[in-house]
Amino acid sequence: MTYLKLALIRHAESIGNTQKIMEGQSSTPLSANGLLQAQQLRDALSTCSIAHPRSAQRSQKERSKTEHSKIEHSSFLYSSPLLRAAQTADILAEALDHSQRRRSSDLQEMHQGIFQGLTWLEAQNQHPQLCKQLLHARNWQPVPQAESPTTARKRAEAWVNYILHQHHPGETIWAISHAGIMQQLVAVILGCDRTWQIPIHHTARFEFWLSQTHWQTLCADRFNPEYWILRRFNDTSHLTELNAPIAPGAQAQP
What we know:
By secondary structure, the chain is of the alpha/beta class. The protein is built from eight helices and six strands; from the N terminus they run βαααβαβαααβαββ.
């Protein structure tokens, strides 16, 4: 069966991330560690392929052609226009040198409104009452001038629908985006009626295989898992600094 292969990737660490700034739709360049993260992912992409999950059932000759080849070159590399994502895409493009490059504003991070460019401490100092409400209220509290979750969800739906109508099984899509909007994108692709909080590390990969790009027309086959394959979910195996054992009680930083 032929699939449209869609890989979502979070950008590498930016200088703003190291400073705990709520960058939103502003941006700083990649940090030294961010450059290393992007290079590690680039190296992983240049030495592996997107292989079929049943490749073990195929002949040794077929597997060698698939598993030891470079990434398929009939692919498209999309990225958010924000600097931290664009720089990550520039580095990954070295492993995807035949990919067609495209920018999409729908992939950029959610706007943080009056918090944009501030650290949380700065936000607390400048907007103490609003920050107190955000910390103690379970329901959504609007931040002035910020993008709402509903608007972000519609933006994610627009990008996914664009991909499903512009691309077809047999093609590979790489998309470099941001943690906040990626939570919305993942929910849209999985068909969720809600958005799940996912701690997405820098350069983490999500990989979805779709044999049908117009599943609304399907009946019983809509529930056939052969049509949809979840190949990677929040995968950071390429990052060497995350492969060391984590002490009990310790948590990786998003």
